[in-house]
Design brief:
Distance between the termini: 43 Å
Number of helices: 15
CATH architecture of the largest domain: 3-Layer(aba) Sandwich
Number of strands: 7
Mean pLDDT: 94
Strand order of the largest sheet: 3-2-1-4-5-6-7
Strand content: 5-15%
């Protein structure tokens, strides 16, 4: 079907409250990524989907199309972890998933951290890693070398998903969260099959965990806290939808169950990239603080999802050990040095 008619047909169905099939969603997103959809069509589709509510098949089909148009990193995807989340919580915390990725790598988890510049906060993962001295502009071959050499790399979304530019203007003009907020974490360029994915919408944790299953993930935790964070919180219980052994189960976890103290939410708020980089450095240096506790909660979950701990609490203990030994700070230093070297040789 010609692209315009395909999109018009899909939009008409969505307006009537009908769901797209997985194939229809894949084809429509393919047309968008290929630059064959107008801004008006994209805006209409995103709005109709948001009002109707996105289904597993729709999100899966969209993600499959985006993966097909993205640049791929050729590496072993088994037991490879990503900590990319949706953002969009509206709470200006520091970059918890980014420092959790570094700690996980120090605990011998292979990590391909997918991320971008800030969308809703004051500093995205790309912004804070730059402030920490990391060269974020690695191409696919350089990223593979970095991952193979030190067990972690950063995949800057703007480099790996150039076709997203076709949807940039409609998304910006709409100014509301759309299905694209959920798609970024589902399109890791290295094909990571393990994930800790924070999401802003608690009603979607099981949906996104099921999408990850459909996309081939082996282990995942999709988390959204009851106090509004797209992370595991230390200020309130967190809703978790966990994918394990092909089954998605949903439950709540509290800071106490992880062996951590509760802290007010305002104690883990962040600032701009420089401020957040200073917070991350203090955590990796072993300073005791609420910042440390919320990082340990999330890094512990990463280690658990990677299969290096039998329980979440056990993952937290392993995270503590690599921080307190200095291994986590050393891993950041390795990442800075390796990306500088790759930048130099390029």
């Amino acid at each position: 079907m010609e692209a315009t008619k395909l999109i018009q047909s899909g939009l008409a169905g969505l307006i009537e409250g009908k769901d797209l099939s997985r194939n229809e969603a894949r084809d429509i997103m393919g047309a968008i990524m290929d630059g064959k959809a107008s801004s008006a069509q994209i805006g209409g589709l995103l709005t109709a989907l948001r009002i109707k509510g996105e289904t597993v098949d729709e999100i899966t089909g969209f993600a499959e199309a985006m993966r097909g148009f993205g640049t791929h990193v050729s590496t072993e995807s088994a037991r490879l972890l990503d900590t990319c989340g949706t953002g969009g919580s509206g709470i200006h915390k520091f970059n918890i998933s980014t420092v959790s990725a570094i700690i996980s790598a120090a605990a011998s988890v292979r990590v391909a951290k997918h991320g971008n510049r800030s969308a809703s906060g004051r500093a995205g993962s790309a912004d804070v890693l730059e402030a920490l001295g990391v060269n974020i502009h690695l191409n696919a071959e350089q990223a593979r070398q970095c991952l193979d050499s030190i067990g972690i790399c950063f995949l800057f979304a703007q480099i790996y998903h150039p076709s997203m530019r076709h949807a940039a203007a409609p998304r910006r003009e709409l100014g509301v969260r759309t299905v694209f907020n959920m798609l970024g974490p589902l399109t890791n360029p290295a094909g990571a099959d393990r994930q800790l994915l924070g999401i802003y919408d608690r009603s979607k944790t099981a949906t996104i965990a099921t999408v990850l299953k459909e996309l081939g993930s082996k282990r995942a935790m999709v988390v959204s806290s009851l106090d509004g964070l797209d992370e595991i919180s230390i200020s309130a219980p967190t809703l978790v939808s966990e994918l394990k052994n092909g089954v998605v189960s949903t439950y709540e976890v509290t800071p106490q169950e992880l062996g951590l103290t509760m802290h007010p939410l305002e104690d883990v708020l962040g600032g701009d990239a420089a401020e957040n980089a200073a917070i991350i450095t203090s955590v990796l240096q072993g300073q005791v603080s609420p910042y440390r506790d919320i990082v340990l909660a999330n890094a512990g979950a990463c280690i658990y999802v990677a299969g290096l701990a039998d329980t979440l609490a056990g993952g937290v203990e392993k995270a503590k050990a690599v921080v307190d030994s200095g291994q986590a700070l050393s891993k950041l230093e390795q990442l800075v040095a390796m990306t500088e070297e790759l930048n130099y040789v390029s």
